[in-house]
Automatic annotation (TrEMBL):
<dbReference type="InterPro" id="IPR034904">
    <property type="entry name" value="FSCA_dom_sf"/>
</dbReference>
<dbReference type="Pfam" id="PF01883">
    <property type="entry name" value="FeS_assembly_P"/>
</dbReference>
<feature type="domain" description="MIP18 family-like">
    <location>
        <begin position="12"/>
        <end position="85"/>
    </location>
</feature>
<dbReference type="InterPro" id="IPR052339">
    <property type="entry name" value="Fe-S_Maturation_MIP18"/>
</dbReference>
<protein>
    <submittedName>
        <fullName>FeS assembly SUF system protein</fullName>
    </submittedName>
</protein>
<dbReference type="InterPro" id="IPR002744">
    <property type="entry name" value="MIP18-like"/>
</dbReference>
Amino acid sequence: MEAEINMAELGEKIVEVIKTIYDPEIPVDIYELGLIYDVFINEDQEVKILMTLTSPNCPVAESLPLEVEEKVKTLKEVKDAEVEITFDPPWGQELMSDVAKLELGML
């Protein structure tokens, strides 16, 4: 019988992986920047990540979502990962964590 997957623990692991991905223009990880809006995990351990970019013309608009998908898929508990990009609501500095604001000298 398969071991029961703790969804909260898996969510934390996914966030830890996401925190290793940095915006190329800002020295802060994309989670602390507030680019990740939500992480959904279904009972089949398929992950859907709702994220945004700092702007629709972001130079990594193509590669950043793929990097997120690929890194999340490296977790053995994850069967599949998909990133959906949204600009609703649009990203703004108010979405940044205090850690990100401190790193950028905004606090």
